[in-house]
């Protein structure tokens, strides 16, 4: 299924994602929808270091992009000359990693003499649920939760975004990873903590729900990490201590995000909520937000699990929508931004 309108020209858009430690490529057709996608994760490369090493990430992207391009072309039964535009992640992210995707994407566009489209990484996440059927219609509230960002955004249309709230310190995914490290769960820690929390007793500990007892839609998660550390140090160790702390931590994060999402829906009057980003794959979060949506009379949308984390499909889709709205740039110009707020983007008309 395609969310680009049937009146738009038929175009095959290549998407390249290289903002951090995953190399993702995809082909999206303006009329047929997503045709192919492939992803290489650098988890094993960085695990020995306990986190992402930017220089290693950049070098690995260089090795992966062209083989993945050949893979998605094979999946789609297409040739390079069939590509009508190239979309790439221009930020935010690691500068070196971004430059790899931008340079290769721009070079391909120049060689093929097709448009190039710079895509905001978080806009890619924000639009990822549009890859599903049914796809949410504008306007909606977006909860974007990942290792680097936690945002509540009022989405009025393509490029028309108002940030309602964000984390004042650690992003939710970052807090998951740091707490997992305290519990010696390895890298990447967030998914490991969520798995361990399934074994925990939800009644043993209750962690605070930060910033929910005051007005506003901002978040703060660093205190939960400190609370987990204090609990770990002050509680006699037993066989279930780590699992019970993991469960208390996860419940606190999930409850906080549910409270803030309910508040955002009520403040704006929106009746649609989308959740995306790596933490959007958390099953407890999905369950609790779905229940909240039912209670509030709001429809809740998610991308499939494989499109919650960084991927090329969301970049190809965002590029296709921007291309249809007339947003292209000089293929010879390369520019990336390590920091880039969604509100810097300009509203674009959805193609008729």
Description of the molecule:
Helices cover 40% and strands 18% of the residues. The protein is α/β, with parallel strands linked by helices. It has 2 domains: 12-128 and 307-344, ATPase, nucleotide binding domain (Nucleotidyltransferase, domain 5), CATH 3.30.420.40; 138-302, 2-Layer Sandwich (Nucleotidyltransferase, domain 5), CATH 3.30.420. The protein has a 5-stranded mixed sheet, with helices on both faces. Helix 3 links the parallel strand 4 (85-91) and strand 5. The protein starts with 11 loop residues before the first strand and ends in a 28-residue tail after the last helix. The mean pLDDT is 94.
How is the biggest beta sheet arranged? 5 strands, mixed
Task: Return the domain count.
Answer: 2
Report the top-level CATH class of the largest domain: Alpha Beta
CATH architecture identity of the largest domain:
2-Layer Sandwich
Mean pLDDT across every amino acid position = 94
Helix count, DSSP H or I runs of 4 or more residues: 10
Given as residue ranges, the uncertain stretches (5+ residues, pLDDT < 50) are none
- Give the strand order, joined by hyphens, for the main sheet: 3-2-1-4-5
CATH superfamily of the largest domain: ATPase, nucleotide binding domain
Regarding quaternary structure, what we see is single chain
- By CATH, the topology of the largest domain is Nucleotidyltransferase, domain 5
Q: What does the radius of gyration come to?
A: 20 Å
* Proportion of residues in β-strands: 15-25%
């Amino acid at each position: 299924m395609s969310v680009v309108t049937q009146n738009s020209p038929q175009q095959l858009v290549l998407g390249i994602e290289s903002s951090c430690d995953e190399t993702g490529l995809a082909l999206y057709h303006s009329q047929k929808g997503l045709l192919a996608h492939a992803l290489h994760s650098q988890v094993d490369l960085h695990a020995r270091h306990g986190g992402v090493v930017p220089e290693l990430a950049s070098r690995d992207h260089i090795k992966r992009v062209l083989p993945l391009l050949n893979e998605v072309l094979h999946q789609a039964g297409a040739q390079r000359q069939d590509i009508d535009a190239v979309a790439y992640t221009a930020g935010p992210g690691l500068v070196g990693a971004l430059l790899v995707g931008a340079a290769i994407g721009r070079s391909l566009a120049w060689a093929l003499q097709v448009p190039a489209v710079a895509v905001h990484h978080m806009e890619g996440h924000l639009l990822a649920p549009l890859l599903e059927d049914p796809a949410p219609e504008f306007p909606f509230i977006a909860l974007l939760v990942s290792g680097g960002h936690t945002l509540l955004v009022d989405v009025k249309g393509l490029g028309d975004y108002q940030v309602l709230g964000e984390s004042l310190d650690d992003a939710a995914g970052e807090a998951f990873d740091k707490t997992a490290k305290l519990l010696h769960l390895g890298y990447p820690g967030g998914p490991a903590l969520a798995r361990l929390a399934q074994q925990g007793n939800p009644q043993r500990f209750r962690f605070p729900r930060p910033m929910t007892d005051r007005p506003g839609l901002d978040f703060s998660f660093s205190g939960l990490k400190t609370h987990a550390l204090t609990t770990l140090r002050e509680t006699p160790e037993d066989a279930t201590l780590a699992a019970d702390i993991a469960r208390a931590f996860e419940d606190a994060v999930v409850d906080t995000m549910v409270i803030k999402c309910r508040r955002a829906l009520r403040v704006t009057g929106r009746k649609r909520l989308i959740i995306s980003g790596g933490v959007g794959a958390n099953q407890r979060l999905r369950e609790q937000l779905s229940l909240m949506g039912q209670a509030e009379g709001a429809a809740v949308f998610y991308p499939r699990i494989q499109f919650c984390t960084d991927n090329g499909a969301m970049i190809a889709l965002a590029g296709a929508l921007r291309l249809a709205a007339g947003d292209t740039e000089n293929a010879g110009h390369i520019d990336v931004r390590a920091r880039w707020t969604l509100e810097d983007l300009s509203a674009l008309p959805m193609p008729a």
